[in-house]
Specification:
Length: 284
């Protein structure tokens, strides 16, 4: 079976499953995001080991997995995730290196990479946060809102690939990602703007009773597209340092979790921030 065939089969299965899970939300979405966060943390620590670092893997994977669950618990009023809890987590990791690493076990890089891995993989929690945005009333509205930045991320990727293959001449950042071009980046940005305007008009407004002004939609698309491309380049940078082609081989035809979701991990927190300022509830 060719690489392209595997990618298509995986997409045909994963796309409707993803929509269903986001629509259902609640504990099902929290659990799926928890699994994705754990796998992403494992991949990041795996790449870190290739550079000679010694992250605290079991603790980091467990904490990354707990973040989406904590966000879910916070929505239900069971637990409130605070900055103090995050600080305590980092201090606990630091203290554990006294026994788990010692002075010869690179304690500074162990703690730094572990804490970064938890935060980075834990960004999957923002999918849950967007799904339950204050303005998203009902499962349909929450689902439509989540897939706005998702579709813009995908359209950026598709546009960058198509325009890069057709018109690409000038390399974007060849030392990080040799295949990406300036023309492709601009093409991805342009397609994201078009898709955003269409999505807001034909999906977000009629099905979620939410909207963006034209200026707001264009601004949102530009920021999301630039953020998506930055996220892709950031993960490429990590893979370059580790000397690996893929973060793992978990997803058929797509590599690893970070290979597939690198852009989205950057996009969702920014989208959550922007939607809080740009989103307009429509009159009933």
């Amino acid at each position: 079976m060719s690489e392209l065939t595997r990618r298509i089969i995986f997409a045909v299965i994963a796309a409707p499953a993803s929509i269903a899970i986001v629509y259902f939300g609640d504990w099902a979405l929290a659990i799926v995001l928890s699994v994705l966060a754990a796998l992403a943390a494992w991949e990041l620590f795996r790449m870190a080991r290739e550079t000679g670092a010694l992250p605290l893997e079991p603790a980091g994977i467990a904490l990354a997995a707990l973040l989406p669950i904590a966000v879910h618990a916070q929505r239900l009023g069971i637990y409130t995730l605070s900055l103090t809890a995050v600080v305590a987590m980092v201090l606990l990791l630091f203290a554990s290196t006294i026994w788990l690493r010692g002075p010869a076990g690179k304690p500074l890089s162990s703690v730094a990479i572990t804490a970064f891995g938890v935060m980075y993989a834990g960004l999957f929690s923002y999918i849950y946060a967007v799904r339950y945005h204050d303005y998203a009333v009902g499962a349909g509205a929450g689902t439509a809102l989540v897939f706005l930045p998702v579709f813009l991320t995908w359209s950026t990727d598709v546009g960058a690939y198509a325009f890069g293959r057709t018109f690409g001449r000038k390399k974007l950042i060849p030392s990080v990602s040799p295949g990406k071009t300036v023309e492709g980046a601009v093409g991805g940005l342009g397609l994201a703007i078009v898709i955003c305007l269409l999505y807001v008009r034909f999906i977000l407004m009629p099905y979620a009773q939410l909207g963006l002004t034209i200026q707001g939609a264009v601004l949102f698309a530009i920021v999301v597209s630039v953020t998506a491309q930055t996220g892709d380049l950031a993960e490429s940078l990590l893979k370059r340092e580790a000397g690996v082609k893929d973060s793992s081989r978990i997803l058929p035809g797509h590599g690893g979790i970070l290979d597939r979701f690198d852009s989205l991990l950057f996009v969702m927190p920014i989208a959550f921030l922007l939607l809080g300022r740009l989103l307009l509830p429509m009159p009933q």
